[in-house]
Input
Amino acid sequence: MKKLLILFVIIPIFGFSQISERKQSEIVHIGKYNKGLTDYVMLERWNDNEIVVRFKNVKYEVITDYESFSFKDVDGAYDYFYKTLAEGTTSLFQSEKTLELPDEIIYINFQGSPLDMNANISVQSRTLNSKIDKLIPLNYNAINSIFGKGVLEKPKFQKETDYTTFNLTTRNSVYSRIIKYDEKLFLHLRFMMFKSLSNIPTTILKGGKTTIILDNGDSIVLLNDRKIESCLGCGSIGLSGSSTYGINTVYELSNDNINKLRNNKIVKYSIETEDGLIENELKPKKQEEFKKNLQTILD
Output
């Protein structure tokens, strides 16, 4: 009987010892960016060195859906994530990045104007039937707010000219300017295409040519080293066209090309796109305007 009583006493003790209180994770809120009342992206660091990104999924306009993804801050992962976003949003060129996380794949498409890009981020789940969520577009200031950096001054052009309107018709509109950055000169083009009076998105494929014909019969051929896709407002230089699709692309000019443009006038140009060739002649007034703008950079 004594053995039986001892057994009854011991069993409950061991049974309750299997239950213990789990220590609550300490959460540090790093930063947040809000757009409107409901759209946001928020960054947190947990005490197990886990970085958590919470966001409003903007893939669906009528559905309120909040999601998150996370990764461990090992081998400088946190700093690398910030650097990728900060450099992409202040680049001269549009680009795409893919980041591999344990449970998700992050796709980042940088689109916009030189030194003023938006990071368009999509998050694909590895487990939930490849479910894809989208964050609100984030510019350089938004990135710094999310990472708790405050307001940081972004890179600036050393010099930039006014835009010259190469063409403005019911078929297409093309604007051009020269920018100087890091002691190099670049030709910056923005354009939109129209079909049946409707704006259409288009693409410049990798290897696509932009050809400039000069008044001495010489030509300058500029190649795209990456695929350039349309984005909303990218082809406009003001409010007009800011809600329509356009292309925004930049070409580095060699010293030989600069000398050709300095000593001659542009009489014609063509731009290869996936939806056809944009080809126009420049009026004499625009020829002079572009050359004058170039000289302000060279002086």
DSSP finds five helices and 21 strands in the chain. The first helix runs from residue 2 to 16. The mean pLDDT is 89. The two ends are 107 Å apart (CA to CA).
